Amino acid sequence: MPIQIISADITRLSVDAIVNAANPSLLGGGGVDGAIHRAAGPALLRACRTLPESAPGVRCRTGEARITPGFALPAPWVIHTVGPVWRGGDDGEAELLARCHRNALHLLRERRLRTIAFPAISCGVYGYPAEQAAAVATATLRDELARDDDIEVTLCCFSDAMRAVFQQALAP
Ligand code: AR6
């Protein structure tokens, strides 16, 4: 299975692309987004600013993904995606979270990259219950990788507790 689950700081990983759990502005924030911008340096913010807006202040809608260089990060690329804010589960959250994972992999393939690390998108500030997010993320990635086993995915959790949740979701 080309999916591994680790607990680590995603900004330290030497994969082709790390995924950022961003907000629609793509201009940085807290959590993993803040950590990625700090580690990449100010050139990342400048690169994000140059991405076109689809509405005032919106460079990436929920479920979509954009790619920039990684600048000072060990990873040469950052794929920014915007996870759904948890609103109880009946607001299309699962489909939007699945779309984040599919669109990130789509960009990876388009650039002919091979290794990618995802954080637990939406599981922090956006409030998605971890068990449910892990079920969506692992099912989507499994499904995608079934037709493309050259890609290697790392699910990069920030704590051992979160890693256990994702491992449980991936267990057959
Ligand atoms: N490496 C890996 N995972 C991390 C790291 C890190 N360095 N830092 C935090 N996490 P969050 P969201 C975990 O809140 O819920 C931002 O302000 C964290 O423990 O970063 O999608 C954006 O700008 C949690 O499990 O993202 C948006 O406004 C997971 O990453 C908003 O937060 C995701 O938590 C997005 O919220």
TrEMBL record:
InterPro entries: Macro_dom, Macro_dom-like. One of its GO terms (molecular function) is O-acetyl-ADP-ribose deacetylase activity. Pfam families: Macro (PF01661). Residues 1-172 form the Macro domain. This is O-acetyl-ADP-ribose deacetylase. It comes from the Bacteria. PROSITE patterns: MACRO. NCBIfam families: PRK00431.1-6 (NF001664).
